[in-house]
């Protein structure tokens, strides 16, 4: 299974010129934990609900500050044709939980998260458990 087959392809995006207030409204209305900031259809940054929460202690009026002050610039991405297990390597290497997914041209095609990896592993373990149970009728977990 490839990275492009995991996670949603309908990514919530915004402009890097947005205010943090606009971003938090999107986080709330779209019920997501991150917004990918794009320029020319490519990821230029990412801002998470955690980034927004931490900004409260750093700024007096967080709603009006530029999202550029709190976003992670040039986010780590994964190519849509990479194997799903690459998410694990990328999490360790980059110490982040979310990755914009891009095509061979660097254009945004989706987003994958730690949660997507865990769900995929869970599905695979279910398949293994089914095989064990079918081959060992006496076995009960």
Highlighted features:
alpha/beta; four-stranded mixed β-sheet; three-stranded mixed β-sheet; 35% helix
Structural notes for this entry:
With about 140 residues, the protein is α/β, with parallel strands linked by helices. It has one domain: CBS-domain (Roll), CATH 3.10.580. Helix content is about 35%, strand content about 20%. The strands form two sheets. It has a four-stranded mixed beta sheet. It has a three-stranded mixed beta sheet with strand order 5-6-7. The radius of gyration is 18 Å and the shape is elongated. The protein starts with 12 loop residues before the first strand and ends in a 6-residue tail after the last helix. The mean pLDDT is about 90.
CATH top level class name: Alpha Beta
CATH architecture: Roll
Largest sheet: 4 strands, mixed
Please bin the fraction of helical residues: 25-40%
Q: Could you tell me the mean pLDDT?
A: 90
Question: Distance between the terminal alpha carbons, to the nearest Å?
Answer: 27 Å
- SSE sequence, one letter per element: EHEEHEEHEEH
Q: What is the total domain count?
A: 1
Per DSSP, what share of the residues sits in E-state strands of 2 or more residues? 15-25%
Indicate the structural class.
alpha/beta
- Low-confidence region ranges: none
- CATH third-tier fold name: CBS-domain
Shape: elongated
Supply Rg.
Answer: 18 Å
Number of helices: 4
Mind telling me the CATH superfamily name?
A: CBS-domain
What is the β-strand count?
A: 7
Q: What is the multimeric organization of the chains shown?
A: single chain
Kindly report the spatial arrangement of strands forming the biggest sheet: 1-2-3-4
């Amino acid at each position: 299974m490839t990275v492009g087959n995991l996670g949603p392809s309908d990514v919530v995006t915004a402009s890097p010129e947005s205010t943090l207030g606009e971003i938090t409204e999107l986080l709330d209305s779209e019920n997501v934990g991150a917004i990918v900031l794009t320029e020319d259809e490519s990821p230029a940054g990412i801002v998470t609900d955690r980034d927004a929460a931490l900004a409260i202690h750093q700024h007096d009026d967080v709603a009006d500050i530029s999202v550029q002050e709190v976003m992670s610039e040039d986010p780590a991405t994964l190519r849509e044709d990479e194997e799903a297990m690459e998410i694990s390597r990328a999490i360790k290497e980059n110490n982040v939980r979310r990755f914009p997914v891009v095509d061979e041209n660097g254009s945004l095609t989706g987003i994958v998260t730690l949660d997507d990896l865990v769900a995929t592993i869970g599905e695979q373990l279910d398949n293994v458990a089914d095989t064990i149970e079918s081959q060992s009728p006496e076995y009960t977990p």
